[in-house]
Amino acid sequence: MTKNRRSDERVSTNLPARWDGLSGRNEARIEDLSMSGCFVNSKGRVDVGEIVGIEIKLPSGEWLPLRGEVASYMAGTGFGVLFTFLTDDEGQALRELIN
């Protein structure tokens, strides 16, 4: 049995998103979300350890910009991101979105 490495509870979601990385700008959907990271459903290519910028479309129509490090990658499916650079304002907006 594998141990769950996540320290924050993730919530299932289906939010439009876009992200920028070494491969350029890509469209995506956020499938799950927590204070420490998310899963980005995208066909775009990333490398584990790469720093990416992610913008999540909020229910209000505004975009929440976040940055993080790619923790896992599944070709053709997407990738997991750890939010390693949250400001206080980004953290508060993310907390409101999750709740």
List the topology elements:
Layout: E1 11-21, E2 24-33, E3 37-41, E4 51-57, E5 63-74, E6 78-82, H1 88-98
Antiparallel strand pairs: 1-2, 1-4, 2-3, 3-6, 4-5, 5-6
Q: How does this model look, in words?
A:
With 99 residues, the chain is mainly β. It has one domain: Thrombin, subunit H. Helices cover 11% and strands 51% of the residues. It has one helix spanning 88-98, and strands at residues 11-21, 24-33, 37-41, 51-57, 63-74, 78-82. The protein has a 6-stranded antiparallel barrel. A hairpin with a 3-residue loop joins strand 2 and strand 3 (37-41). It starts with 10 loop residues before the first strand and ends with a helix. The mean pLDDT is 91.
List keywords for this structure.
99 residues; mainly beta; Thrombin, subunit H; six-stranded antiparallel beta barrel; 6 strands
In CATH, the topology is named: Thrombin, subunit H
In the CATH hierarchy, the architecture is Beta Barrel
**Rounded Rg:** 13 Å
CATH class: Mainly Beta
Strand content: over 45%
The number of helical runs is 1
Strand order of the largest sheet: 1-2-3-6-5-4
Q: Tell me, briefly, the overall form.
A: globular
Counting structural domains, the number is 1
The end-to-end distance, rounded to whole angstroms, is 30 Å
